[in-house]
Amino acid sequence: MAFKINDSIAYTGKIDWELRKFHGSQLSTHRGSSYNSFLIRDEKTVLIDSVWTPHTAEFIRELKKIIDLNEIDYIVSTHAEPDHSGALPHLMAAIPDTPVYCTKNGVKSLQGYYHKDWNFQPVKTGETLNLGSKELIFVEAPMLHWPDTMMAFLTGDNILFSSDVFGQHIASEYMYNDLENEFEVYSEAMNYYANIVAPFSKKALSKIDEFDKMNLPLEMIFPAHGILWRNNPREIVDKYLEWANGYKENQVTIVYETMYNSTRKLAEAIAAGIKDSDSDVKIKLFNAAKTDTSDLVTEVFRSKAMLAGSPNLNGGILNNMAALLEELAGMSLTGKKAGAFGSYGWSPANIKHLNSGLENAGFELTGKGVKTTWAPDEKALGLAYDFGKEFAEAVK
User: Fold this and answer.
1) Is 148 marked active-site?
2) Helix, coil or strand: residue 22
């Protein structure tokens, strides 16, 4: 799908309404997504990124409707993942000598994916590509979220092509933030940040600071996925600063997995204890086996504390709970507290595994947790309730 952004810039990406899983099946995309690509015409013409591999034929077909491929003077690859670069092999087969501008790590990644020695032009932060009346200023952004990532700032239009940074997974016929539902946009932006950018929060803080010191007149931000920030783009930058700096709301998220509802009953008793101790705190309960993992990651990211529950299974914990803790371990969480709970039959190893997983994910444990044998009776539920009250006081 190609459409005109202004007299010199066209959108040449793909809006994917059907996408529901991303990064294999790792990340859920409830509202679809887009693979954003842009054609800039000046005295020289440059294409910024392409689309995911399955959409190559459509991308090339639509691109040919608005330009002879031989008129493309330069290609800029901000990131080598196939959702950004997937159409490059087909495109480069048609225009094989066209210079491809990317970072040094971008060369390595693109060669690793496509095993081609294209006309690579490695660039560094501050280097420019002259287009005539405008120029692109390159800004390396390693580990946001890959080593090869970079951004490009277009002078004159004052647009930052930000690659994965500031993106969201949203399919939209409008494509601009001022035309979309603001709640949905920021909800998906947080979900994107929590699941993709959060492990690199320190990098995000330092890169925003570096970009600000370049004193470029930012007017719009065009990320590689989702809607384009044309109205007050500084708002999403400020959100990133907030999210990257030990973000937490007054929320406790309780995530459990259960076999015969014993652990679920403990979770509900703990929640009641928390609420009776602190009526202002928001409490959310989720069954890890019935809730999307990407959504759980986002809820934990926004919380000041987490409680993890599972019964014992073969000296460990249930699979979905174990997978969530493994996922959280890669998020580089800071400043959040946690506790563990669960039922068991003859071995309380579940609590040990839960506590170990929480500590490995960067949580500060509050107490040793609460456990009960078999189905909880009134006494066991009372212990869970008291644990909830104590936990609420500990995380205030």
Assistant:
1) no
2) strand
